[in-house]
Amino acid sequence: MNPMKETLQSGLTRLQLTLTDEQVEKLAAFGRAVVEKNKVMNLTAITQPEAVAELHLLDSLTLCRVLPLQGKSVLDVGTGAGFPGVPLKIAEPSIRLTLLDSLQKRMNWLQNEALPALEIPVRFLTGRAEDFAAANRGHFDVVTSRAVARLNLLCELCLPYVHTGGYFLAMKGAETDTELKEARRAIQLLGGAYERTERFSIGGAEHRVIVIHKTAPTPEQYPRPFARMKQKPL
Ligand code: SAM
Fold first, then answer.
1. pLDDT tens, position by position, for the chain (234 residues)?
2. Nearest residue (CA) to ligand 1, atom 12
3. Contact by Cβ (8 Å): 69, 81
């Protein structure tokens, strides 16, 4: 077995996730595509196949342990090279996945090369999260985001897209206490309620997923323009 598949298999066992051989092969193929394209386009600082398997693919799949995702509409905000959205779609093909990012080059690669080659059907929104919100308010069961912004800003970017009753899953490192405290007011103003934090061991470090339940519609004035958000976080 190759190193990427070996890391994937042992990580899936650790996460207690069962995938078919075909799904594991598809995950590995996506990981290989990222490693290859990264030689000519800046996609990620992680280049070793085992590290891509652990820190990108398996890390993304932790979300399968947080919520049942079968049949859900999922939006991945600031997806970059497709994380966590693409591994989730491979592991749970019934997801209706939308990827959103403002970086045209990465989105073109996903849309025109990587995902068609793997026959992974996905919808794309290329542009800034704050600009697409008006046309997509409350459209998604689940919104995900990893490594995009601090939680108070991230909530303003992501919560407007979640319908009442849905969830926002923010993937973070081990230091979330201050961020969470700082974001409490924003979560409440935007119609959310902090539910819980899930912890996973990934590559020897603790990774956390902050689970926010959408309990009321987000007031129309949010999200504000990004400059305003940064200048005056909620
Ligand atoms: N989520 C991916 C991951 O974890 O590997 C990519 C993380 S990368 C550090 C942050 C990504 O967020 C970039 O691709 C950037 O273009 C995107 N991004 C940041 N702010 C954004 C915004 N307001 N709207 C859309 N995309 C945004």
1. 688 899 999 999 999 999 999 999 999 999 999 999 999 999 989 989 999 999 999 999 999 999 999 999 999 999 999 999 999 999 999 999 999 999 999 999 999 999 999 999 999 999 999 999 999 999 999 999 999 999 999 999 999 999 999 999 999 999 889 999 999 999 999 999 999 999 999 999 999 999 999 999 999 999 999 999 999 999
2. 78
3. no
Cβ of 43 closer than 6 Å to ligand 1, yes or no, is no
Q: Is the shortest distance between the CB of 79 and ligand 1 below 6 Å? A: yes
HSE value, Cβ hemisphere, 13 Å, CA-based, for 7 = 20
The model's pTM is 0.97
103 Cβ inside 6 Å of ligand 1: yes
Question: What spacing in Å lies between the alpha carbon of 1 and ligand 1's midpoint?
Answer: 33
Cα gap 194→168, rounded to integer Å? 10
